[in-house]
């Protein structure tokens, strides 16, 4: 604060008035509510956050901003309100107006143009438009560096993974905003670009990088923006944990705000906290205490998004903190000076009470429309076009049909589809999410891409077929359309986080590669994949021969895409950051002799190794090998080829490491089912050697199509264990270094219901089940195999058919519960039941782990034609529990469940998660780059 005058207008001697300037609050509704009016009049609120839920149009926004300022003015506020919004373009626009507010590419989309000059112009135009409506503070630029780009929710909201590039575009955006006369805010300090997400909403995302690592990368854009005059900074609510830096929430940490941001980076502008209403923060600390901690840490403005009662709690908390001398008045007035200085730069009563509104927007519209078109046209990026499919006229005759396949997605806040749909639906109010995921979108798939299909159709004489796809995968309707079409376009939107899109696209690619002409000659069917959000979906997957990125799916972006597809526009965009550079995987040299497992020779030594691994597991951790023996890995199944490997001491016969592999011929899947090393001999490349031998062996299998880490059968390791944070991170990193993309993982888990003898079904569930009209029965033995195995074939999940065949072959200890349609007797669902005496249980050690009389439920299959999927699944499991209870078992194991399923229903039935895993899959082509042994 050096050099600042200590003299303030006497009006600020009123401490309540002063403290009101240190809050930024939001509210529900598109007009002034009694609550926000009371906050301005009675509590002297100085800053307001508007979101898409407040803003209907440019005209209504102008009116709302004026009314808010008029209330403040009439209430005697010495200075106008600071009114802020998120207006990042792309997918994050709070203010949308089809007529007066132009759409521009996302941050990454602008970076793809390669022009910081264009970034400046886009930012200036954006700020001019919101300023015309009375908004004086923009929550931008986004300065995060995607140091872990593949699985972060920020996605295209940042310029990429190169800190210098992010910095250059961040500063350009900031200067553009300033040129238009509004205040700027950098976010999300100290970086949301490499967060570890633990799962629960009450688990805070964590930054684990050290200060040194942050300084070399993530902090560069923040440091440069500060030097160029950034007005304010948002400090995130994430946790930080590394050597010398520990904070439960960054924005509440004096070490982060006063230390790192103020002292180290020399920032003396306004610091804004993350919203204190975020679940983890309010649950862990409480809003009153959190407000005191935020101000003491160095935050000048405390953000509270919407709940009036919580906002009152925060106001009371700050006042109590000052009265109890927990917060010094010096701290309060230092913050007030910063807020007043920022307001002086971006507003005045003359400006606040006279927003130009529509009159100015009408004059800006022609030049801004041209700028929007220019920016989008320059951003579209053709990453690869190996077979020269572009323009489409190269490969598609007029009489041939073009097929467009689009995912069901959330429309962007800045889209007409989203606006139309949100106005037609009544949605439940939910707590305001954290800032990095705040949008105003509702679920719909058909509307948002329908206009794209129409645009494609308008440009050609032949027909355009358009249908959507979901997590149900490639259905017969898709296969029929693919066979019929002359060329296919598949759209993906963040396929690295919506994994069904990745699997669907790879499946379509496989179908296109297997097409044949009528004469029997192989002809690869033209396939174009378009990533309409994150470019990371298939950037490094060269098996996708033609790959285009648009960086968002607003109407303007898709209009430019159509021009590129039909050759009316030469694509100029380039992938931002480092992803355009080839990333070669480094594989360990094979230092150890790997031998094939010999059951006669190695079984006893394997039991000894399993015991050593069990004993080497920390007491607080559960070992997946707790009840496993050497027999647990030997399937001896006619339709599964198994090869197991060991690293051994040929002199002592001791095993140092073991790896089991299985090739499931029915699905063409090669599986690593287990890989473990003697704890006393880790970090010696034994695991690397076993892994490389396993991959090479599986690659030689005829018909191999995909690889999987984790196995349903045997059900020992369902994937990478994820029960403990540090161990999970270590294992993920280890497998990632071997070439597995853990970002493309699928959560799976074991679940258990205990105290079954005193259990009773949830009230109403039987009635709900009866309403489906489905008939259930239980059968035993191979006589019933035909229809059951036909149903199983409708799912491509690895190991399903093999589980059912084991169960059908063991009628004394296994049964199949069937669900049938009464009108035609067609099977629509099945599930396997087994007990301790069954052959199947030998491969599911988790059943023995329960250490009490227990039965198991395995491998539910529901027909894709069934609408009531959840109800039928719960019904099969409910009936299975009843059967197991009748056998006098006190526990029931669900041995392999999708971890992203709806667990509320299972919890109501008495189940809890026993252990979590991440099942990782990849295309077989991923491993062809492994160098030969030598």
From TrEMBL:
The protein's matches in Pfam families, at most eight in alphabetical order, are given as: Acetyltransf_1, Glyco_hydro_3
Against InterPro entries, the record matches this protein to: Acyl_CoA_acyltransferase, GH, Glyco_hydro_3_C_sf, Glyco_hydro_3_N, Glyco_hydro_3_N_sf, GNAT_dom, NagZ_Beta-hexosaminidase
Per the record's keyword annotation, is Hydrolase included, yes or no? yes
In the record, biological process GO terms are: carbohydrate metabolic process; peptidoglycan turnover
* Keywords in alphabetical order: Glycoprotein, Glycosidase, Hydrolase
Q: What sequence ranges are listed for the domain Glycoside hydrolase family 3 N-terminal?
A: 15-341
Domain N-acetyltransferase residue range list: 638-709
- Segments spanning the bilayer are none
> One GO molecular-function annotation for this sequence?
acyltransferase activity, transferring groups other than amino-acyl groups
Tell me which family the UniProt entry assigns to this protein: Belongs to the glycosyl hydrolase 3 family.
Q: Which PANTHER family match?
A: BETA-HEXOSAMINIDASE-RELATED, PUTATIVE (AFU_ORTHOLOGUE AFUA_8G04060)-RELATED
Name this protein carries in UniProt:
Glycoside hydrolase
- Origin species, per record, is Westerdykella ornata
